[in-house]
Amino acid sequence: MSILYAVLVLGALGALFGALLAFAGKIFHVEVDPKQAAVRECLAGANCGGCGYPGCDGYAAAVAKGEAPCNKCVASGPEAAARIAEIMGVAAGDTEKMVAFVPCSGCTGVAEPRFNYTGPEDCRAAMLFGGKSSKLCTFACIGMGNCAKACKFDAMHVVNGVAEVDRSKCVGCGACVDACPKDIVKLIPEKQKIMVGCRNQDKGGQVMKICQVGCIGCMKCQRECPADAIHVENNVASIDPEKCIQCGTCAAVCPRKIIRKLEP
Q1: Can you spell out the DSSP letters for 104-168?
Q2: What is the CATH class of 96-190?
Q3: What span, in angstroms and rounded, lies between the C-alpha atoms of 51 and 37?
Q4: How far is CA 131 from the centre of its chain?
Q5: Where in the chain is the domain with CATH 1.10.15?
Q6: Where are the alpha helices (DSSP H) in the chain?
Q7: Under 8 Å CB-to-CB from 263, ≥6 apart: which residues?
Q8: Thinking of the domain 192-264, which architecture would CATH place it in?
Q9: Less Cβ around it within 10 Å: N or C end of the chain?
Q10: pLDDT tens track, the chain, 264 positions
Q11: pTM of the model
């Protein structure tokens, strides 16, 4: 009988608490703007923060209130922006897709090591030793994968000691940019295919001592570019995406083969 009484008491308590929760749900229920719910349905649900708002719900609420544009969800793309604009009755606006890029080619065996790091697989931890990284090039990617861990779209991986971007998966949310303690990862227009895979600002002679492929600032690319789109500044070549015509001349003349076409 004691077991039966216990079961009955538990059942009664369960019913009581269920009734209290249902009552509380009605009392504290908050009406959601139908437009907010409709906008939320259009979003990718990644909660990546690329829009600048606290997750998809925060962005949807801002759009519904007219406080945010319709084209800020980089993970969903222009198609979602068009649907959201239709819901809100406004123009979607132009959206240029951005993708991440890591301007470093100093992989293992190419960039000279500073020391043999055996600590935690974390870029910030590696920077505690010597203040820069485990490579002699102080501008190089550390390669411990903080950016890859931050990416929610499996678009960033560390290959042979350097972070690489899978442009077919990258949505341009910028999580990898924020995660990099050395501020190496950049967002560039997806249309830009020709990029310089180095950011070392040391003079050419010093670069040649510490990296087999680093930019030496020889200016061949600058002299040969038919569109005046590439210039050597602070001892390293830099491309202006607005001027670049994607001809690949700079890549062809680069003696270090540091200028390359990004795929896809």
Answers
A1: ----BTTBPBSS---S-S-HHHHHTTTSS-SBS-TTS---S-HHHHH-SSS-EEEETTEEEE-TT
A2: alpha beta
A3: 17
A4: 24
A5: 34-88
A6: 2-27, 34-42, 55-64, 77-88, 123-127, 146-150, 175-179, 204-210, 220-224, 249-253
A7: 167
A8: 2-Layer Sandwich (3.30)
A9: N
A10: 667 666 666 777 677 766 667 666 566 545 557 888 899 999 988 888 888 888 899 898 998 888 888 888 888 888 888 899 899 888 777 678 899 999 999 999 999 988 888 888 999 888 887 666 788 999 999 999 999 999 999 999 999 999 999 999 999 999 999 999 999 999 999 999 999 999 999 999 999 999 999 999 999 999 999 999 999 999 999 999 999 999 999 999 999 999 998 877
A11: 0.78
Reading the block at residue 31, the tokens are 């009406």
Tokens, residue 74 = 């980089």
Phi and psi angles of residue 59, each rounded to the nearest 5 degrees, phi first: -70, -45
The CATH architecture one would assign to domain 34-88 is Orthogonal Bundle (1.10)
SS3 state of residue 197: coil
